[in-house]
Specification:
The structure holds 2 protein chains of 2 kinds.
Chain A (H helix, E strand, L loop, with lengths): L1 E6 L1 H7 L3 E5 L4 H11 L9 E4 L2 E2 L11 E5 L6
Chain B lengths: L3 H6 L1 H4 L5 H10 L1 E5 L3 H12 L4 E5 L24 H12 L4 E5 L8 H5 L4 E4 L4 H14 L3 E7 L2 E7 L12 H4 L12 H4 L4 H19 L8 E6 L4 E6 L4 H6 L4 H6 L2 H4 L8 E3 L1 H5 L6 E5 L14 E3 L16 E5 L5 H13 L4 E5 L8
Parallel strand pairs in B: 1-2, 1-4, 2-3, 4-5, 9-13, 10-11, 10-12, 12-13
Antiparallel strand pairs in B: 5-6, 6-7, 7-8
The chains are: A alpha+beta, B alpha/beta.
Chain lengths: 77, 368
């Protein structure tokens, strides 16, 4: 069982790929912890999660087949 | 009533049944403020002026540089060193006499933003830094103005329409619903540090122009409560639905007074370039009595250093002891140079421009 992850912008520089999978976990807090363990440089990064293309603002239960987006802010113009 | 010239100029869009003459009238009567005449602004402005927006304000305090020209396509070699807003206004004036242009060449701040924004129906963000982006977002929320947001980095871009007032009087999501607080300015590379493909702001700015025309004419579905993310490398687009975030209100200035007092610059540079560092060699050249050294280490840390101009205040208690800091120049020091930077940021927030504040580059050991 795994979770599909899409990453954007400078997050992809850390994860090395804009699409990858992570082992299934129960909720988004556990997923963030697992991501930071796998990619320690994420600890200093600002990014938000979207579950199935909807931004999440608090801990959210994950289900099989969910697609998670990791989105950093962009500042350039 | 449109003139014969206007019928001809806009004929290819008036013929669109969704837009028609009523849509053209709405464009001619609309007032749009574009903040930032860089890569995004250079894409937005020609299309919007060509479409017949009646009044366009351009706000940018920057001048044209050679390294802008690969993406800021309104400008040319002969304009290097000239004000971008002035050059962009000249371009629009020669393109379409129906568009009245106002330019603002001062930097947008929380002191002048509200009075400038008041003259416009729609605000477009084409800036290049978080401090101004949060300032624009908050001003639009306070004034109930729709904000057409665009941002880019390297090969990617983001587009959204924030703070649209729906028919039941509610405002749609704004930037703080996505990112309630700004990141440290040095955390996110800008175009200068990370680079950007010149066509990316062209695409994202064109998408912003499209959203603006849709909002004014009432056609299609603008990106309300949605953030579009575009990747030029695979031509990928993802549309995320933005959820209301309870933290947004917590960080948003509550009213115009709080907005005017909010320090947007410091909030965005918590570990950034704003901190000035001083080397030990430079420090030794300062005249005695002109500065204070603040040792922010804990009591037990070694070596103990005793100097006439040195005062010991632990970082955790610094806020409570600022009355002891009387010199015009304050230099924070610690074991490695990390906590001294945090201390310098705290002092910058407290003293602002009233004192010169430095962090010693490296360890306090250099002072033995």
């Amino acid at each position: 069982m795994s979770i599909q992850i899409l990453s954007f912008g400078s997050i992809t520089d850390i994860t090395g790929s804009s699409y990858f999978t992570m082992p299934m976990v129960a909720d988004t807090s556990l997923l963030i912890a697992a991501l930071k363990e796998k990619f320690p440089a994420l600890a200093d990064k600002k990014f938000i999660l979207a579950v199935n293309a909807v931004t999440v603002t608090e801990n959210t239960i994950l289900k099989t087949g969910n697609i998670i987006a990791l989105l950093p802010p962009f500042s350039g113009g | 009533m449109l003139t014969a010239q206007q019928y001809e100029r806009y004929s290819r869009q008036i013929v669109l049944p969704q837009l028609g003459e009523p849509g053209q009238q709405k464009l001619l009567q609309s007032k749009l403020l574009v903040i930032g005449a860089g890569g995004l602004g250079c894409a937005m402005l020609p299309y919007l002026a060509a479409a017949g927006i009646g009044h366009i304000g351009i706000c940018d305090d920057d001048t044209v540089q050679l390294h802008n020209l690969h993406r800021q396509v309104l400008y040319n070699n002969s304009q290097i060193g000239m004000q971008k807003a002035t050059c962009a206004a000249a371009f629009i004036n020669s393109l379409n006499p129906d568009t009245v242009v106002s330019i603002y060449t001062e930097r947008l701040t929380n002191k002048n933003a509200l009075s400038i924004f008041n003259g416009y129906d729609i605000i477009a963000d084409g800036t290049d830094n978080f401090a101004t982006r949060y300032l624009i977002n908050d001003a639009c929320v306070l004034l109930n103005k729709p904000l057409v947001f665009g941002a880019i980095g390297m090969f990617e871009g983001q587009v959204a329409v924030f703070n649209h007032t729906t028919t039941d009087g509610q405002a749609t999501c704004n930037y703080r619903d996505i990112f309630p607080e700004p990141p440290a300015e040095n955390e996110i590379p800008n175009c200068a540090a990370a680079g950007v493909l010149g066509v990316v702001p062209g695409i994202i700015g064109s998408m912003q122009a499209n959203e603006i025309i849709k909002i004014i004419t009432g056609i299609g579905k603008p990106l309300y409560n949605q953030l579009l993310v575009y990747n030029a490398l695979d031509c990928g687009t993802v549309k995320l639905t933005i959820s209301k975030n309870n933290l947004a209100d917590k960080f948003m200035p509550a009213d115009e007074k709080a907005f005017a007092e909010h320090n947007y610059t410091i909030a965005c540079s918590t570990a950034g370039e704003a901190i000035k560092e001083i080397t030990a060699a430079e420090l030794f050249l300062l005249p005695a009595g002109s500065f204070q050294l603040i040792d922010v280490r804990k009591e037990e840390e070694q070596p103990k250093i005793v100097k006439e101009e040195l005062i010991k205040i632990e970082l955790s208690t610094l806020n409570e002891h600022t009355g002891l800091l009387t010199a015009p120049v304050l230099i924070t020091v610690c074991q490695t140079g990390v906590r001294s930077k945090q201390a310098a940021i705290m002092l910058m927030k407290i003293f602002g421009n009233n004192k010169k504040i430095y962090s010693l580059n490296g360890s306090i050991f250099q002072l033995i």
